[in-house]
Specification:
It contains four helices and 17 strands. The protein is an alpha/beta fold. Strands 3-6-11-14-16-17 form a six-stranded mixed beta sheet. A four-stranded parallel beta sheet has the order 2-5-10-13, with helices on one face. It has a four-stranded parallel beta sheet with strand order 4-7-12-15. 24% of the residues lie in helices and 26% in strands. 34% of the residues are buried.
Amino acid sequence: MRKTERFQVESANSLWHIYKTVSFWKVVKNFIIIQLARYTPFLPIKNWLYRTFLRMKVGKETSFALMVMPDTMFPEKITVGTNSVIGYNTTILAHEYLIKEYRIGEVVIGDEVLIGANTTILPGVTIGDGAVVSAATLVHKDVPAGAFVGGNPMKVIYTKEEMENRMNKGDI
């Protein structure tokens, strides 16, 4: 189960309540910073933008590939550990708006995690240290440390122990 706070809404769908949830100007500022970072090829500048203006927690030597899309409304709820790689065009969401409610949750990505291209990470999940997420995966629940996961819906392909055995045998 994802760890999110749920907020019920009355009448119109929850997206109509967006600016009761978050300031319009915060979203505008975040959007501009995210667009700058999405296109910059300089990793230290990208990380500086995320840390300074979006208040994301980003570890040393973490790499965000081209076109990564952090949450525009609640980027401060995203934590990425040290020496991780977030693949091309990955989306990291800390919120979701539904018909009768909206949800907000922390996203924690551990140290030395590899996220493949075109992955979507939903709010309220933790991806453990050393995990590998295959390209085009929908991360809808926690990922154990050291595991290799993939697919939609996401499934564990190899546990940490199975990955270690494969590496020891030279299969990887």
